[in-house]
Amino acid sequence: MGKFYVTTPIYYVNDAPHIGHAYTSVVGDAVTRWHRLLDDDVFFLTGTDEHGLKQKQAADDLGISPQELADRFSVRFREAADLLDIQYDDFIRTTEPRHYKAVQTFMQKIYDNGDIEKGTYEGLYCVACEAYYTEDELVDGCCPIHTGRPVELMREENYFFKLSRYEDRLLEYYDQHPEAVRPQTRLNEVLGFIRGGLQDFSMSRSAFDWGVPLPWDPSHVAWVWFDALPNYITAVGYGEDDERFDYWWPVDYHLVGKDILRFHAVYWPAMLMAAGLDPPKGVFAHGWLLVSGEKMSKTKANKITAAELVDDFGVDAVRYEFLRDITFGQDGDFSWEGMLARYNADLANNLGNLLSRVATVVGKKCEGAGPAPQDGSPLQTIAADVYAATADAWERVAPHEALEATWRLIRETNAYLETNEPWKADPGPVVDAVMGDALEALRIVSVLAWPALPKTTTEIWRRIGLSGSPADQRLPDAAAWGGYPGGLSVEKGQPLFPRKQAD
Length: 503
Ligand code: MSP
Description:
This protein is α/β, with parallel strands linked by helices. It is built from 17 helices and 18 strands. It has a domain of about 150 residues: Isoleucyl-tRNA Synthetase, Domain 1. A hairpin with a 4-residue loop joins β4 and β5. The site of 5'-O-[(L-methionyl)-sulphamoyl]adenosine has 20 residues, from β1, α1 and β12.
């Protein structure tokens, strides 16, 4: 049993949750569920990022206090997570007292170590990013991330984090731990950025007070990223419970969108080093979920919420779509048509159909009692290969490959039934053997697909007569052939995934 600590970014509360946010959370949830099956001690963290100028301005626009904005929207993110069965172990909010305490301890430590110094800064600031850019980085004079959004000239007397002192140490760290940034192409991007020369950055703001005050100068608050990133250490007891902190830190994976890679793979490790802490073991950057080829945005009014998709397809189908149709690490185009096709092919025709056939034949030819599988079944070696491939893919955080591997067992079992045609045969040992094998394959599939489809696999488990649920199973034992005991009552029930038509 190992420990496995994974985080999602904490989401800004100036906007309602959409499927771009849901995407990271679903991947984090599925990966951690896989590790729960491995009997790892798992900690999965998500939450909301509630300070900074952008939040303050959004609150002003609505005529409410920033705390009220945070309270209203944080709840919506939590509801969005619950809607998608995200099994988080903690939901952190940066306005919580525990976080103030941890951030202050963290900043003070870096200040005492000499890597925060006072200075004056003048630069071009994008409020949406909460970050300064150099002239070179702008695109047509505008923010490189928020296309077309003008930057503002800001001049502030601030405290600076001495990032420039960390170039060599960061390069050395990545030289020794090339696996710490994934996918590989993103590591190259990070190394290129570091080699290009690191600038000290301003880590405090004095023009507004919506943030965590610096302990040594409360007329300044922490710059939002200096406050947000440490959420990952607050939640595991930094400055509060050393034993707990030492157990969980360093984190196994920060899952992040590619837009915030630099903050996680350059700024954050340097900040941690400056505080005498280990850098993250892994930062995994994923691409954009695009809608008809474009990034979702307020201005384009092309935002899709998870709730809309859940209404149409159900929770598990939405989870499956995110995990199976998009290569984690790359941009992926989301479309309703694509989702419909995937739903009908993989969920209705393959998985749903398999359960329905098996339950029908067991009802008609085995008096409703599921027979035991055969030792040496042709499906046995396939199941072993499928387990190996599935486990390997989850280990590499490649959900699309993991599910593709698992679905091979579903397809092969359907093919096995088609070859043997038990529905045409007379009841007896031959039919029993084939049906026992198919039930055993369904049992194994229920365990292997549980991280993606927690509700559906639990229902399959129940319908094939097993007690408990896939959640209680432990790998690799639960994937070994022969676990279906036989003699259990099998229930047909309604289709798991009724076939859908475009309308
Ligand atoms: N608050 C910061 C993160 C601080 S982490 C210490 C932030 N918040 S965010 O709400 O703007 O974005 C959160 C995450 O959602 C980011 O990883 C971002 O990449 C992701 N996504 C937002 N829209 C997205 C898509 N359309 N597609 C995929 N992910 C995208 O940044």
